[in-house]
Amino acid sequence: MSGHKDLYQKFVRYLAQTSDEPIGIVVDRAEGCWIYAKDGKRYLDFISGIAVTSIGHRHPEVVEAIKHQVDRYLHTMVYGEFVQDVQVALAEKLVTILQEACKRAVGKSEWGWQYYPTNSGTEANEGALKLARKFTGRKKFIAFKNSFHGDTMGSLSVTGREVYRKPFEPLIADVEFLTFGDINDLERIDENVAAVICEPIQGEAGIIVPPDNFLPALRRRCDEVEALLVFDEVQTGFGRTGKWFAFEHWGIVPDILTVGKALGGGMPLGGFLARQEVMRTFAENPPLCHVTTFGGHPVCCAAALAALNFMEQENLPERARVMGEKLKEGIKELAKRYRSASRGKIVDVRGKGLMLGIEFETKEETKAFVKGCLEKGLIVGGTLHTEKVVRIAPPLTISDEEIDWALKRMSELVR
Q: Secondary structure of the chain in the HEC alphabet?
C-alpha cells in the first residue's frame, strides 16, 4: 500500500504538474478496456486516454508489430531522407483509407494524397497552417470560437478559447474567429484567407455537433474564395464518430486533413495529408523548409500500421456507430431517471458514434458525476474548461457487457 503512495509523492515532486487535481491513478498495467492500479483496483477506461486507445490498451497485434520493428531498426535518419519500408507501408495504407473515405463522401475517388508524419496532433496542425500559407501565398487564417487545435504557438493561435490564449499573447497575427455552426458568419471568409481550420465536431468545447448544413456551406465558401479547408480530425478520426473520418457524415472533403491520437495504436504519432500539388510546396523554394527528426518513427509507424489493419478487419467504424447508439440511448434513459430523482438535470446527451458528451445543469453536478464514477471504477472525463460537460469516449472495441457495466455504475450514482 505504502509503495504506490510513495510513487504518487515522487510523481508530484519530480514531474511537472499540469493541474492541482490530477486523476492520480497509480497505474500498474493496462489491457483491453481496463486499467489496473497498483492498489489492486481496476478501472473501465471510458475516455481512452482522450480518444487515443481506440483499439484498447496493449492490443496484441500492435505489441507484436512493435517487437518486430524493434528487432530490425529504430531511428535511422530524419524524415524524408531514408526509405524506410514500414513508413512507406503506413503512408500507403493511410492514403488508401482516406481515398476510400473521400469516395464515400463525394461519390468519387480523390487521388494524389500524400502523408506527412508528425509526433502529435498539435504538430500536425502546425504543419497544416504552414503548408496553407506557403501554398496560397496568403497570410490570414479563419478558425472558430471555442475550438481547440493544440498548445504550441501556431496551433494555439487558431484555438478559439481565451482561457488558453491570453497568458501567451501576442500570438500569430491575422487570425479571425467565427461562430461555429453559424452560416451567416461564413461571409467573412474572403480572398485574403489562406485557410480555414475546423474540427468537424468540436471536442474540448463540449462535443458540439454542427447543424447539418453548416460544413457543406463552409466547403462551398472556401471554394468560392479559393481558401484551403483544413479539417482537424485528431480527435474525431479513425472511426470514433461511426465513420472512418467525421467529414463523411456531411458529404464533403477537406483540402488538408490533420490526424493523431488513435492513429498510433497507443504510440505517439500524428500527421497531415494533402494532395501532392499542395504538399509539394514543402520540397521547394527552399527544399527542407519543413522538417521533423522523429516524425514517422519506424516503431510508431509499425504500431499504427497494425492498428489500422485491425480497424479495417473488424470494421471498427461501424462497430462504433452501433455501440455508440446503444450507449447514447442508455445515457438518455439515465438522464430521465436523474431528473425524476430530483437530483438535478442532465441538459443534453449528444455526439456521434463513441464520441459523446453529457451536459449537466451545473458544474458542481458535473464534477460530482466524474468523481463518483471514478470511485466506482469508471473513468469518464470533463472537457477542458467546459465545466458542465462530461466526455464519454471508450475504446471502439468496447463490449456489450462492458457498456452495461458502465451504465449500471452511472445508474448507481443517480440512485
A: CHHHHHHHHHHHHHCCCCCCCCCCCCEEEEEECEEEECCCCEEEECCHHHHCCCCCECCHHHHHHHHHHHCCCCCCCCCCCCCCHHHHHHHHHHHHHHHHHHHHHHCCCCCCEEEEEECCHHHHHHHHHHHHHHHHCCCEEEEEECCCCCCCHHHHHCCECHHHHHHHCCCCCCEEEECCCCHHHHHHCCCCEEEEEECCCECCCCCECCCCCHHHHHHHHHHHHCCEEEEECCCCCCCCCCCCCHHHHHCCCCCEEEECHHHHECECCEEEEEEHHHHHHHHCCCCCCCCCCCCCCHHHHHHHHHHHHHHHHHCHHHHHHHHHHHHHHHHHHHHHHHHHCCCCCEEEEEEECCEEEEEECCHHHHHHHHHHHHHCCEECEEECCEEEEEEECCCCCCCHHHHHHHHHHHHHHHC
pLDDT at position 340 is 56
pLDDT, tens digit, 9 for 90 and up, residues 297-341: 999 999 999 999 999 999 999 999 999 999 999 999 988 887 655
Gap between the Cα atoms of 288 and 285, Å rounded: 9
> pTM (2 decimals)?
0.96
Residue 334: closest CA among 320, 349, 321, 353? 349
Q: Domains of the chain, with CATH numbers?
A: 2-58+316-414 (3.90.1150.10), 73-314 (3.40.640.10)
